[in-house]
Design goal:
Largest sheet of chain A: 2 strands, antiparallel
CATH class of chain B: Mainly Alpha
Strand content of chain A: under 5%
Distance between the termini of chain A: 35 Å
Number of strands of chain A: 2
Helix content of chain B: 55-70%
Mean pLDDT of chain A: 83
CATH class of chain A: Mainly Alpha
Structural class of chain A: mainly alpha
Distance between the termini of chain B: 36 Å
Radius of gyration of chain B: 16 Å
CATH superfamily of chain B: Cytochrome c-like domain
Number of strands of chain B: 0
CATH architecture of chain B: Orthogonal Bundle
Mean pLDDT of chain B: 88
Largest interface: A-B, 41 and 31 residues
Order of helices and strands of chain A: HHHEEHHHH
Oligomer: heterodimer
Number of domains of chain B: 1
CATH superfamily of chain A: Cytochrome c-like domain
Helix content of chain A: 55-70%
Order of helices and strands of chain B: HHHHHH
CATH topology of chain B: Cytochrome Bc1 Complex, Chain D, domain 2
Shape of chain A: globular
Strand order of the largest sheet of chain A: 1-2
Shape of chain B: globular
Number of domains of chain A: 1
Radius of gyration of chain A: 15 Å
Number of helices of chain B: 6
CATH architecture of chain A: Orthogonal Bundle
Low-confidence stretches of chain A: 18-22
């Protein structure tokens, strides 16, 4: 990959990135906290591993970019990203739910950076 | 009794998995192509690119392997992961998982 290719990809991605970033900005962290009962059983337990369909640690999402969380949830909902549990959960979420959850999990970014 | 057999099998299985965890220093050297999007230490500045600093080692390995195999589809990550060896993947995962960034949040 040449430097120019990297530049082209970066420009493309930044353009794509700005759209969900606007959506994510609408999320309410407090509302997200009230909706995360489906998340904590896996993402809220230290060292917790999935057992189906493969065994691996459940990813940390505290401090993640809100826009990325929304994108991941939308991809699970649309079926572009496959994980049985996450597909089922994301299918039940509205755009507002996703934005609120993303705002809640992203809200530790400052704390995470200071650690 | 069945539980005991199951538990024994689990212990044997986990012991059979090699405990190769990758070399963080080697991973850092191999991370030049990652920096452009994920940032120098995995704390990306662009909101659409995930932070990977502090992510679990085995989750990073799984993600890269899935991009490489095509199980996870992404036009940017697919060509990146295609060129990585198993050793590269382990080293990169060791590097990023050892950085400070993502946290466990209840």
């Amino acid at each position: 990959m040449t430097r120019l290719d990297v530049l082209r990809i970066s420009t493309f991605v930044i353009a794509v990135a700005s759209a969900p970033a606007l959506l994510a900005a609408d999320g309410d962290p407090a509302a997200g906290k009230a909706k995360n009962s489906m998340c904590v059983g896996c993402h809220g337990i230290g060292g917790y591993k999935t057992v189906f369909p493969e065994v691996y640690s459940v990813p940390k999402i505290g401090g993640q970019h809100a826009a990325y969380i929304v994108k991941a949830l939308q991809e699970y909902k649309s079926g572009n990203r496959s994980h049985p549990s996450m597909r089922a959960i994301a299918a039940s979420l509205s755009d507002k739910d996703m934005a609120d959850l993303a705002a809640y999990y992203a809200s530790d970014a400052m704390k995470a950076a200071a650690k | 009794m069945n539980n005991i057999i199951l538990a024994t099998c689990c212990v044997m299985l986990s012991a059979a998995v090699p405990a190769f965890a990758g070399d963080p220093a080697a991973g850092q050297k191999k991370s030049q192509t990652c920096v452009a999007c994920h940032g120098p230490d995995g704390n990306s500045q662009a909101a659409d690119f995930p932070k990977i600093a502090g992510q679990h080692h085995d989750y990073l390995v799984k993600a890269l392997k899935d991009y490489k195999s095509g199980a996870r589809k992404n036009p940017i990550m697919a060509p990146m992961a295609a060129n990585l060896t198993v050793r590269d993947i382990e080293d990169l995962a060791a590097y990023y998982s050892s950085q400070k960034g993502l946290v466990l949040k209840y």
